[in-house]
Each structure stands twice: as C-alpha cells, then as structure tokens.
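User: Hi! I'm working on a homework problem where we have to compare a predicted structure to a textbook description. Could you give me the structure for the chain below?
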Amino acid sequence: MRRMLSLLAGFVLASVSLSGCWLQVGFDAGHTRHNTSEATLTVANAGSLTQAWSTDLLAKAGEPLVRGDHVYVVTGGLTGTSTRTDVRAFATVDGQAAWARSFGGAGEALFWEPSFVGGELWTGYFMVGSAAGRPIGTYAAPVRMDPADGSVISSTTDAAGLTAPVEVGDVVVQAWLTLGTPNRRLVVRDKATLATTWTTVLPGGFSGGGLPGPPPAVADEQIFLGDSTTLSAFPLAGCGAATCPPTWTLDLGARPTAVVATPGGSSVFVTRGTDLVAVDRATGAITWTAPLGAAAPGLALADDRIYVAAGSALAVFPAAGCGAATCAPTASATLDADATAAPVVAGDVVYVGVTGAVQAFDATQEPPAPLVTLPVAGAPTSMSVAGGRLFVVTTQPAPSPSQLLTFAPTPAPAGSDD
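Assistant: Happy to help. Predicted structure tokens:
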C-alpha cells in the first residue's frame, strides 16, 4: 500500500509538471524565462491567440504563477484610505475566482514576488509607515500559504523585504532586507524545517542599497546574486560554516535588473542600465558586453540564445558571445512601441510586452518573424506561459487598476488537472 501511494504521489507530481506549470519567478531557478515543457501553445497556433478573459487587480501586481488549472497573482495598492496586499487565485480556463486573501493596514503596501516551494505558495508584504501603533519595520510578513484555499500556514515579522524565494532541491535561497543588524543578507534555508543552513552579509545598509534586487539565480550548484550595484557568486552548499564569503564579487557600476543563468553554461547574464553583460561564472570577470541603446526590463535565455527587449527592438545574441569584448546582436526585430516587460520564450515563440500590446515572434526564424500582436490596455509588466495559455499582468496610470489577462489559441486548450 505504501509503495502504491508513493507511486500515485509521483504520478500526480509528474502530471502537474507535464501540464506546463510556471512555479517561480522566471520559470526556473536560473530565471531563464523559458518554459521548456510547453508543448500546447507553439508556433503552429500562437498566431490565433485571442483574449480568453481578464480581471481587475489592485494598483500593481507581480508575476503570474501557474500550477495545474489555477493561476496565482499577488497584487497591492490603495483601497479607500488604506492599502493592502492581496493574494488571489483564478481558474485558468475562465478566470473564475477560486479564493482571495488580503493583508493590509495604514501606510504603503510593498509586496515581494511569490514562488511555489514544494506544495506551498510563499510571498509576503511590508507596510511603510506605522500601523495600529506599531513602528515602521514591525509590520512586515513573509507568508506561507496553502494554494488550495489561500489559508495561511505561517507568517512572521522578521523581514522588511525579500526577493522571490528560489527553490533548489532541498533548500530555499532568498535575499533578505531587515531593519536589524545586519541589514542585508543572503539566506539559504532547509525547505522542510526552515532552519538557516548558511548565510552571508551583503554590503550596503537598509536605504543605501535600496530594496532587494532581482531574485538570486541558481545553476550548477552556484548562486548568483545581484544586489545594490554588485554581482556575487556563492557555492550553493555553503562553506561548512554558518556565515560564508562570496567566491567572487563584481562591481557592475549600476543596479542589475535581471540575473540569469542556465545549467551547463559558463556565463551568468545581467542587464544593467542600457547594457547586457556576460560574466564568467568561475572568475567573476566580464567576458563581453552589448550596448542596448535603452534600458532593458529583463532578458530570456533559450537554446543558447539570449533575447533582450530594449526600447523598440528585440535583440538576439548567442550565449557564447562573439569572440570580442563588445558584441552586436546577430538578429533583431522591430517592436511597435518601447518594451515594458522581460521577454518570455515557450513553444519556440518569444513574447515581448510593449506599451499597449504583447507581440509574439517565431523564435525558430532569424530574425524572429512576427506571429501576432495582442492589444492590451496600459503596459505589460510581467508574463508567463503555461498549459497552453499566455498570462499577462498590465499596469495603467492611476487611478486605473492593473489587470491580469489570459490569451488562448483558437480553439482554446482544455483545462489541466491540478
């Protein structure tokens, strides 16, 4: 009986995985934004994408996560005279609300991006200002939730800001910002017990380094963390002590907007300011850079190609570089407006969010060939592709709410079981 239950549990987990879930920011631990398991929404039918449903959120929202037949989003903003952070779940097929959980109070609600850790949904919020007599900094909560009904498994008040959690095997990696000492840390915890395995102190204070940067990227047993204006590498297993120094630290000269790595690669890729930067994983030396001409909201890494949307261009670079210190794109496509969201790749299609639309391109062509343009209100801020659907979060000028929109090919794929 025990073996049968074990096999059944494995089958259920495999079914969830095969459905093409999007379980953490950037899809995987390296944040490649490449859903390698998507086989339903492809080049063959992406041109027939139409809007399936949409729903209003609060003023701003995080990256949509997909698990089985539900999509989850964290959203925050002003409601009347108070602010709040909501975590909401919707049916992927028709947008029917499954549940919503609110956290709120006085001050400005700042939330951090969610991720699935095992079978739990992890997120959190921080209220700037005082609330219910509590001074600034005590009204903060990393939250663990049950995705089935939104019930809170645990909530603490020991962080003022967190990056999205990154699940890697038996551990969870996050950068923490606290009002205590030290202010900035990289923390690696045991997934089952939540005990800290090891940690490191990051340079910069509470305000000097700003809020935590992009979530750590993990590949081939290495952690790559962009915080403040630096990029640092650490061994995932630590150093055998409670506190570990970095293997190397690189001064980027500007705050990174994305840090991306993939298993088997020799470089970690960073967007900073108006540049794409490739850094040697072993030494921390810059191997090549590419001027983009405009700030890039992020990048995608798929099949040894880097996709960067900056300004009104989608540029493609080989991950191996060009053999020189400065590289030009090997191909590019013109966008209808300035890019506002990092590209996403799935089913050989690359999706780019621009002001007023999402544009889809055939990634098997060089340059990428246009497939469809999907009009949206406002500007896309994040996207995910899973289970045969494209999920887009957009933002609009106040007082208009942000929105979650879902697009499906015609005919739409059937819903997947969770």
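For your comparison, note the following. The first helix runs from residue 2 to 18. The longest strand covers residues 70-79. Good luck with the assignment!
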